Amino acid sequence: MSTTFQLDTSTSRANPTPQPMRRLTVPKIRARKQDGVTAEPLVMLTAYTARQAQLLDEHCDLLLVGDSLGQVIYGLPSTIPVTMEMMANHGAAVVRGSYHAVVVIDMPFGYYEASPQQAFESAALLLKQTGAAAVKLEGGEAMAETVAFLNQRGIPVMGHVGLTPQAVNVLGGYGARGRTDSEAGKILSDAKALDNAGAFAIVVEGVVEPIAIDVTKSVACPTIGIGASALCDGQVLVTEDMLGMFERVPRFVKRYEDIAGIIQKTVTRYAEEVRNRSFPGEEQTYQPKD
Ligand SMILES: Nc1nc(=O)c2c([nH]1)NC[C@@H]1CN(c3ccc(C(=O)N[C@@H](CCC(=O)O)C(=O)O)cc3)CN21
Ligand SMILES: CC(C)C(=O)C(=O)O
Q: Coiled-coil ranges per the record (predicted)?
């Protein structure tokens, strides 16, 4: 399959960080794990918009422009339909809204799997159009050659093993992985292959805890868990999940707040005030001078 996404030569999306020296770097992230030990776990959250990035940036080591935006922002049924255009637009917004965290952008399904060359074209476009520092892609042994190809050509890659949502049609659902010996062995060999290929970190998603621990001990680069284990070298969640924007969330999500409830209550008050004409009040209303 050839990449159908055309080169956009306009500079409208390009927007390098205003304070480049203050931003963390990929080598610094990679170096947080030394001889198998990560003293301070890596903090990663998803971000899709500039304002969200501003609010999260100083608290996070990494911001992930995840292809989960397909579901979270666009209401799509899976991450399969997500396009390069969506990733580029949201990625540029997140880079504009941040100056501290390393911004990692997901490679969307269909734009990288066919060959290392296809992956390079897509990854280079995403970095050019967003200012992000690295890409993430799903898959293990099958993607190892691609990870090395990109890394050798200036594009750092974050791997992603275990429950890989772009493979939902092969996996048959979003259930936890690694419950059988063969599945567990495959996840471990996938992670090792990515590590050997030069991935600077690996997301380990939706796996039983012993496998997450085994993977973390077996790779030199940091592992970032989601539905994995507190013993991973870092953690990631979808920000909207963590904030309580959704009624139904996977078991691995901890809802730290009830943002959906706060929004509902607030909008209820606004609607009442509009209907009883108490909004806008005097303070929000312009009057002519004298
Ligand atoms: N909002 C959101 N959060 C995510 O973590 C996320 C996305 N979207 N979109 C992309 C993928 C898809 N992910 C998912 C989606 C569903 C489940 C889920 O429903 N898990 C069930 C078990 C399902 C089963 O056993 O078949 C659970 O209760 O954990 C898990 C991960 C993780 N990613
Ligand atoms: C859930 C995280 C790891 C992800 O891949 C995404 O946001 O798409």
A: none
Q: Where are the beta strands (DSSP E) in 107-214?
A: 134-136, 157-162, 201-205
What ligand 1 atom has the least distance to the C-alpha of 238?
3
Which are the contacts of 31, defined by CB distance < 8 A and separation ≥ 6? none
Name which residue sits closest to atom 21 of ligand 1, judged by CA: 250
Query: For ligand 1, is residue 173 a contact (CB within 6 Å)?
Result: yes
Q: What is the pTM of this model?
A: 0.94
CB of 71 sitting under 6 A from ligand 1: yes
- Structural domain count of the chain: 1
Residue 210 belongs to domain with CATH number: 3.20.20.60
Q: What is the mean pLDDT of residues 251-276?
A: 98
pLDDT at site 290:
81
| pLDDT for the residue numbered 228 | 98
- Cβ atoms of residues 226 and 235 within 8 Å: yes
Q: How many CB atoms lie within 10 A of CB 280?
A: 11
Q: Is the torsion defined by CA of 125, 130, 135, 138 positive or negative? A: negative
The rounded distance, in Å, linking the Cα atoms of 3 and 83 is 11
The answer as to whether 142 is a domain residue is yes
Q: Which of 58, 85, 183, 205 is catalytic?
A: 205
Give the SS3 label for residue 245: coil
Residue 168 included in any domain: yes
Torsion of CA 213, 214, 217, 219, to 10 degrees: -120
The ligand whose atoms approach the alpha carbon of 72 most closely is 1
- Answer whether residue 12 is part of any domain: no
Range of the domain at 272: 20-284
Question: What is the rounded distance in angstroms from the CA atom of residue 239 to the CA atom of residue 204?
Answer: 17
Nearest CA, atom 23, ligand 1: 175
Domain membership flag for residue 39: yes
- The yes-or-no answer on residue 247 being catalytic is no
